[in-house]
Automatic annotation (TrEMBL), chains A, B:
<dbReference type="InterPro" id="IPR008920">
    <property type="entry name" value="TF_FadR/GntR_C"/>
</dbReference>
<dbReference type="InterPro" id="IPR000524">
    <property type="entry name" value="Tscrpt_reg_HTH_GntR"/>
</dbReference>
<keyword id="KW-0804">Transcription</keyword>
<keyword id="KW-0238">DNA-binding</keyword>
<dbReference type="InterPro" id="IPR036388">
    <property type="entry name" value="WH-like_DNA-bd_sf"/>
</dbReference>
<protein>
    <submittedName>
        <fullName>GntR family transcriptional regulator</fullName>
    </submittedName>
</protein>
<dbReference type="Pfam" id="PF07729">
    <property type="entry name" value="FCD"/>
</dbReference>
<dbReference type="Pfam" id="PF00392">
    <property type="entry name" value="GntR"/>
</dbReference>
<feature type="domain" description="HTH gntR-type">
    <location>
        <begin position="6"/>
        <end position="73"/>
    </location>
</feature>
<dbReference type="InterPro" id="IPR011711">
    <property type="entry name" value="GntR_C"/>
</dbReference>
<dbReference type="InterPro" id="IPR036390">
    <property type="entry name" value="WH_DNA-bd_sf"/>
</dbReference>
<keyword id="KW-0805">Transcription regulation</keyword>
Length: 240, 240
DNA sequence: CAAAACTTTATTGTAGACAACATGTATTTT
DNA sequence: AAAATACATGTTGTCTACAATAAAGTTTTG
């Protein structure tokens, strides 16, 4: 029955990842070790191990004698994101089409089903997490341990940006979400067909859609971007 | 005077990185926490934190209840390496030419000087580490937090491969090392000139040289590759 | 004699208590 | 009154001791 026999530590790590991705923990916020350890029912040493791991994965930043901070997003961050994303997304998707196994394709389809459910239900967090999971699976399909770290980092911030700009009331955004979901179906078809060139193309198209959406928010505002505090701006204490 | 006021933990982390890169700790070897903690003069909990961090950086792999293993190198690893390396190297070098600061260029020149010294002295480990440092600095110049994780992972295995195949007696390899050092000078010149296209080109050329060298070792042998044990093959205990 | 189960040993995982560091506040001094 | 210093508080960093898990060796049994 697939009992959840995972350790408290891995549950803790996964939950913290989820909270960072959904912005339940906002960029730049400092984390309290004692508080977190208690809430996950473990002591501080193992919690600190988890935080180190998450730091390695790019979810948090560690400051000596000043604890862990949810990875901040700055203006420079967004610029770099725009440079790296199309390259890594295209490359990994191409490789996914070349290497995907039937089992992985089945998982991708399941994930896509859940993604569409989340859109239908208007659940912002579930939609964002579902999207992250979808592209993570494609990353696993690519099966390249050298590209995966960059892909995962891109997905962290892509997901957080998606959460920031989510707005269920604006109609054109709802349409874009449906379009994105349709593109996901094309990802699946092309990967299943082993069409590397086609997969790379849809990856770029998918990115262009997302980029246009992000730019429609960033460009008009131009100066103040709602992407959380820079590191050391003000140190917002307290997680919840 | 730049006193070494870094914590024992960061010294420990750096030394472990060095030992992994130089193959003083061979791929696939399991690490003993008690032994390592004692040798670095710290207790096990902080050492475990360091190991978690190194796992996040790709130096080691953690197995639940079975400790930390120096990241193994398999045949698949090498294939993936050949796919990802040219892409990431070219991209980061191009960005380096666009973004490098004078201070960074100065550091790069210092590093290159040390690199040439190591070649002259026939010091394999110093040469390998110097090369790693050189390309790491270029990565810092690129200043893109999304590409850096992949670059660093590539450099880990590139360095280890370089150590594996190092042979001071074969003359054509010595020539190739000199050629590589000359290319490093071209890196510096092109980055300093802000020539992005030229930098990307030399990055590819540099990669091609390295690739040819690696292939000259791998192809003739074809079956058994001296790249360390696969995970779970035999579990070589003991670090030193 | 071979195989399986039990016991022993070594290593990893965790908890609680203590030390060190940083920050904010109050007091003192100019 | 303003600034600097000393103090108090809270949070991070570390250590020692203990618990749990896995491997190895030994014994027992078919």
């Amino acid at each position: 029955m697939e009992v959840d026999s995972r350790s408290k530590k891995s549950i803790c790590a996964e939950d913290l990842r989820r909270r960072v991705l959904t912005q339940a923990l906002e960029p730049g916020v400092y984390l309290d070790e004692t508080e977190l350890a208690e809430s996950y029912g473990i002591s501080r040493p193992p919690l600190r191990e988890v935080l180190r791991q998450l730091a390695g994965e790019g979810y948090v930043v560690l400051h000596e004698n000043r604890g862990a901070q949810v990875a901040p997003m700055t203006h420079k961050t967004l610029r770099n994101f725009f440079v790296a994303a199309p390259m890594i997304y295209a490359a990994t998707t191409r490789l996914a089409a070349e290497h995907a196994t039937p089992a992985q394709i089945a998982r991708l389809k399941e994930c896509q089903w859940a993604f569409r459910q989340a859109i239908k239900n208007g659940d912002a967090a579930e939609r964002a997490l579902g999207n992250e999971r979808f592209h993570s699976i494609i990353g696993e399909m690519a099966d390249n341990e050298y590209l995966m770290p960059s892909l995962k980092r891109l997905l962290i911030d892509h997901t957080r940006i998606g959460m920031t700009f989510y707005n269920p009331r604006r109609l054109e955004l709802a349409e874009q979400r449906d379009l994105a979901a349709d593109q996901h179906d094309q990802f699946i078809a092309l990967i299943e067909a082993g069409d590397a060139d086609g997969a790379a193309e849809i990856a770029v198209a998918h990115w262009e859609l997302s980029r246009a959406q992000i730019e429609s928010f960033v460009t008009p505002v131009s100066i103040t971007i709602p992407l959380g505090r820079a590191p050391g701006a003000q140190e917002t204490r307290g997680a919840s």
